[in-house]
């Protein structure tokens, strides 16, 4: 007797009922197969945690790529692939889906030059935009390309023309499929009110032979960060310290969001010394930084979301050499702690 999975292999899928079925790409075909596979198994009941849903309308921008066209019944499937959805949660250190109400699920796919790109999820946090996308190709070796980093426009404002930057991490799904998570620094970009966001990936570069795979993969959607902003807290600090060389550090505030904790400060009158901060929670545990922008007028250090039981934070400034050259490991050996400048923050105040 054939098993359910063996019978699945014998199924012939008739796509004639779907418009432009010949244009179905890797992701749409995977959706259909997954949907049929799920129908074969026994249905189980799972508890559902209610969450505030962020309203979103999304569309694929037509550049040199082609827009996919599938039935609306499958439009929500891409954001429900566990391995893709879970990567963004792991990236921000919350794998238990506590941030579901702050994410925007997109699930739109566009194809250009033999590469399918699906925009999976987007998360807005204090001063940053986190983008999860999946790339698939049977013709381009995605394992050899430089990590793609998108152009981002918020309300028609180019983020990178206003001091934005960021980084991208990669996760291999299979030989033809890779997921990329990009953290985009928003700097002076406002995230208040309704946001019209455009995300555009373009040419991919092969790291081995420097070949360029030309293409444009663009997406546009509307969302709002009001839920996040409503659940944020800002604790004013307003402390200053002046170093012997005349450098001044103005410690402004601590931003507490459901996603992360961010310490904001300014560096004035030079960067001979790069100033960082070591943060201890009320149990004495040192918080591990997840990202930072330092040695600049508008500096910050980002830490994970605080544990529920955290009552106080102890903050200790320390200095690193601001000189050019040398590895991060070499510079870290030159730490000089300013214990006399330590201070405590009451989180519950």
Structural key phrases:
349 residues; mainly beta; Immunoglobulin-like; 2 domains; 6-stranded antiparallel sheet; 5-stranded antiparallel sheet; 5 helices; 22 strands
Describe it for me?
The strands form five sheets. Strands 2-3-4-5-9-8 form a six-stranded antiparallel beta sheet, covered by helices on one side. Strands 1-13-10-6-7 form a five-stranded antiparallel beta sheet, with no helix packed on it. Strands 14-15-16-19-18 form a five-stranded antiparallel beta sheet, with no helix packed on it. β18 and β19 form a beta hairpin. Helix content is 12%, strand content 41%. The chain contains five helices and 22 strands. The model is unreliable at 1-22 and 39-83 (pLDDT under 50). It folds into two domains: 53-227, Immunoglobulin-like (Sandwich); 232-346, Immunoglobulin-like (Sandwich), CATH 2.60.40.1640. The protein is mostly beta strands.
> What is the spatial order of strands in the main beta sheet?
2-3-4-5-9-8
Kindly report how far apart the N and C termini lie: 67 Å
Strand content: 35-45%
Helix count?
Answer: 5
CATH class of the largest domain, please? Mainly Beta
Q: In one word, what is the shape?
A: globular
What's the helix-strand series? HHEEHEEEEEEEEEEEHEEEEEEEHEE
CATH architecture title of the largest domain: Sandwich
Main β sheet profile: 6 strands, antiparallel
List low-confidence stretches: 1-22, 39-83
Beta-strand segment tally = 22
Q: Please give the domain count.
A: 2
CATH topology of the largest domain: Immunoglobulin-like
Structural class: mainly beta
